[in-house]
Amino acid sequence: MSTIVIDNLQTHFETPAGVIRAVDGVSFSVERGEILGLVGESGSGKSITGFSIIGLVDPPGRVAGGRILFQGEDLVGRSESEMRALRGKKIAMIFQDPMMTLNPVLSIETQMVEAVRAHDNVPKLEARRRAVEALGLVGIPSPDERLSAYPHQFSGGMRQRVAIAIALLHRPDLIIADEPTTALDVTIQSQILFEIQKVSRDFGMSLIWISHDLGVVAGLAHNIAVMYAGRIVEAGPVDTVLDHPVHPYTVGLLRSIPANLRRGEALEAIPGMAPSPLRRPSGCPFRLRCFAATATCETEPVDARIGEHSWRCFHPQNEARP
């Protein structure tokens, strides 16, 4: 059984100007121990997808349709108390800014011990032992001593490690990581990615890694889903999608990475901007920026698939290379 199956998820925001379809019919699944990279430009719906899964979409947002099957049970429509029992225990989230997780006026020990005892009725000494163990798993030196520190006494990279450690306290079945290494330097980023892969492998945790960085996802994930304007436009095994991109949007993302260019070659950016969610064009939402668009693209594209590789496009770039 898959750890999680997302089936036609729709998350809408009711505004005076109209309905924003932030997530517009997204479907994917993540197996036990698998890492899925969810990628795309800012505003593509990646983070809202993650927030929808864990039940953190605030009004006026709401899950308007679809199913979120976690270990076979649908989470859509669950009460706040039911979702609170799942968060941290069975499903955990790592935020981009660790200070969204950490309280600046409480010691790390207080925060981690309370996180353990919120779900497990264990003595404080046992909760502290689990906190020390979790800090050690993410590579924090002298974890027993660092428990007494406060968030401001840690560097940005160390704070993020603490946030990851809190997510690991209950060995959740699913972790949703919302660009947790974006603000970190390359060396620290590499260390944290190594630790994440290790704990996912060692404990069989499933992971949804939300990012705009294709380089990070290439080295981390098993599968990848490329989002644009609230929809998944291409998905499949990470090597297949990145080595043989089919959707023009994926091709454009890869062509805009400097590492893929020869020295002195001009960077090829995707023209224009993503459409406003209030004024999306008819048919394929990428057609106004697409080098392969034709009049056919004014109608809604259908899913196409070869094996595990799928896409939504009338003009697949089968021979395209970044």
From TrEMBL:
Membrane topology summary: Peripheral membrane protein
Entry GO CC: plasma membrane
Source organism per UniProt: Devosia ureilytica
Keywords, ordered alphabetically: ATP-binding, Cell membrane, Membrane, Nucleotide-binding, Transport
Pfam family, one: oligo_HPY
Coiled-coil ranges per UniProt: none
PANTHER family registered for this protein in UniProt: DIPEPTIDE TRANSPORT ATP-BINDING PROTEIN DPPD (PTHR43297:SF2), OLIGOPEPTIDE TRANSPORT ATP-BINDING PROTEIN APPD (PTHR43297)
Compartments where located: Cell inner membrane
InterPro entries for the chain: AAA+_ATPase, ABC_Ni/Peptide_Import, ABC_transporter-like_ATP-bd, ABC_transporter-like_CS, Oligopep_ABC_C, P-loop_NTPase
Keyword DNA-binding: no
GO terms (BP aspect): peptide transport; transmembrane transport
Protein name according to UniProt: ABC transporter ATP-binding protein
Ranges for domain ABC transporter: 4-254
Superkingdom as given in the UniProt entry: Bacteria
PROSITE patterns: ABC_TRANSPORTER_1 (PS00211), ABC_TRANSPORTER_2 (PS50893)
GO molecular function: ATP binding; ATP hydrolysis activity
Similarity remark: Belongs to the ABC transporter superfamily.
Kinase in keyword set: no
